[in-house]
């Protein structure tokens, strides 16, 4: 039968270089402390791997390990320092932890799994009995590990989008791999420099493989993308286009509602959702309100019809059909006497070539991509981040599809 130290030696998974010299159980504090000792007289240099004699020992250190039942388990050791002829005196690498980690690799791996499975970082931290900043550190280390291992060889369709950050009107720019459905990088603000920073994620040969880039009609993103991937097609995102049309309808409705209410006419009251949602998602009651609206002579009904008819643009077979559709729609929109709609129509006309690219590269940054809702929930779970880097790490941790788990465990 094992003695107690041998028993723990096997549980921790230590190799023969190490032994457990002391086991201390504190039942009041509910901690189990295992003191580890290196039994080899010669050790490997952590820089070059050469076998060296021991010089001395570094100061005592401790690492949090996986709990043993209800006891928080801590490993402690004075790690030997090697006297290498080439590299000088170096602290040797220990098999159970990374270089500057305060946790064993097994604990980190477990913590990463718990963080990914938990509703919020706070909930995970509570389960793991770690504090918030420790959880943040574990996520940071995991993301850096994942980024180092990541392969970007097959990225052909890129999405560039903005996300709001903090409570006000700050933004971050997010680059995604559309086919891989993963976030590649996040940069502060939504300027040309921000977008350049995103593009720097890819090497020159990788950039050459990018065929199409989906984005909002945002000049800074366009300028940077033209410069960084001159051969890629730019595709203006259809979900942003429908958002602009929706906003235009809402402007028309608000202005008209104000006018009507001044005369005691309540026909447009409470119709906001009715005119903004797709009709197939409306309740029967709201669909009825909509049909009453469309039979009226109200401007809001006209605006709604223009917005709604634009949805058929995307059903055209190719860019030729798309252009013909657009020309018809445009001449109708521009004569509608509704300034917000005309404004959007002119904007679309000015960017038409990069909207028609959709027919050869039907890509979008739309809500069907799982990470959009995930980013939204990251943001609301954190009640608005104050520090950009925290937000970036969180997005890459949850939406980067990175290989986060430490090796060698
Ligand atoms: Zn060395």
Summarize the structure.
With 409 residues, this protein is α+β, with helices and mostly antiparallel strands.
What spatial order of strands do you see in the largest sheet? 11-10-9-12-13
Q: Total helix count?
A: 16
How far from one another are the termini? Answer: 26 Å
Helix percent band: 40-55%
Question: What are the bound molecules?
Answer: zinc ion
Describe this entry's structure for a reader.
Helices cover 44% and strands 20% of the residues. The protein has 16 helices and 13 strands. Strand 12, helix 7 and strand 13 form a beta-alpha-beta unit. The relative contact order is 0.10. The model has no long low-confidence stretch (mean pLDDT 92). Bound molecules: zinc ion. Zinc ion binds next to loops.
Pick out its properties:
409 residues; alpha+beta; 4-stranded mixed sheet; 16 helices; 13 strands; 44% helix
């Amino acid at each position: 039968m094992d003695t107690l130290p041998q028993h723990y030696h096997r549980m921790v998974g230590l190799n023969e270089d190490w032994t457990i010299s002391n086991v201390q159980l504190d039942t009041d504090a509910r901690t189990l402390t295992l003191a580890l000792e290196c039994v080899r007289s010669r050790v490997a240099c952590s820089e070059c791997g050469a076998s060296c004699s021991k010089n001395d020992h570094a100061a005592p250190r401790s690492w949090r390990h996986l709990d043993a039942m209800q006891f928080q388990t801590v490993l402690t050791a004075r790690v030997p320092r090697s006297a290498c002829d080439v590299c000088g005196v170096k602290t040797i690498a220990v098999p159970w932890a990374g270089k500057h980690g305060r946790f064993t690799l097994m604990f980190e791996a477990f913590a990463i799994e718990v963080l990914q499975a938990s509703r919020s970082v706070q909930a995970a931290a509570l389960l793991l009995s770690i504090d918030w900043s420790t959880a943040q550190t574990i996520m940071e280390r995991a993301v850096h590990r994942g980024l180092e291992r990541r392969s970007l060889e097959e990225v052909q369709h890129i999405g560039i989008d903005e996300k709001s950050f903090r409570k006000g009107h700050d933004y971050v720019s997010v680059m995604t791999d559309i086919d891989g459905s993963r976030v590649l990088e996040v940069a502060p603000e939504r300027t040309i420099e921000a977008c350049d920073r995103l593009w720097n994620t890819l090497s020159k040969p990788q950039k050459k493989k990018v065929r199409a880039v989906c984005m909002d009609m945002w000049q800074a993103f366009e300028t940077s993308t033209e410069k960084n991937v001159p051969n890629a097609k730019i595709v203006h995102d259809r979900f942003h286009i429908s958002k602009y049309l929706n906003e235009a309808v809402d402007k028309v409705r608000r202005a008209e509602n104000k006018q009507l209410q001044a005369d005691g006419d309540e026909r447009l009251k409470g119709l906001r959702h009715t005119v903004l949602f797709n009709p197939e998602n409306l309740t029967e009651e709201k669909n009825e309100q909509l049909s009453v609206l469309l039979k009226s002579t109200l401007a809001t009904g006209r605006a709604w019809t223009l917005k709604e008819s634009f949805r058929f643009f995307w059903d055209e077979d190719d860019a030729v059909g798309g252009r013909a559709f657009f020309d018809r729609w445009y001449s109708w929109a521009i004569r509608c006497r509704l300034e917000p709609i005309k404004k959007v129509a002119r904007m679309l006309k000015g960017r038409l070539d990069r909207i028609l690219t959709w027919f050869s590269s039907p890509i979008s940054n739309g809500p069907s991509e799982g990470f959009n809702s995930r980013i939204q929930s990251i943001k609301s779970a954190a009640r608005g981040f104050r520090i950009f880097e925290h937000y970036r790490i969180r997005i890459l941790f949850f939406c980067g599809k990175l290989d986060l788990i430490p090796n060698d465990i």
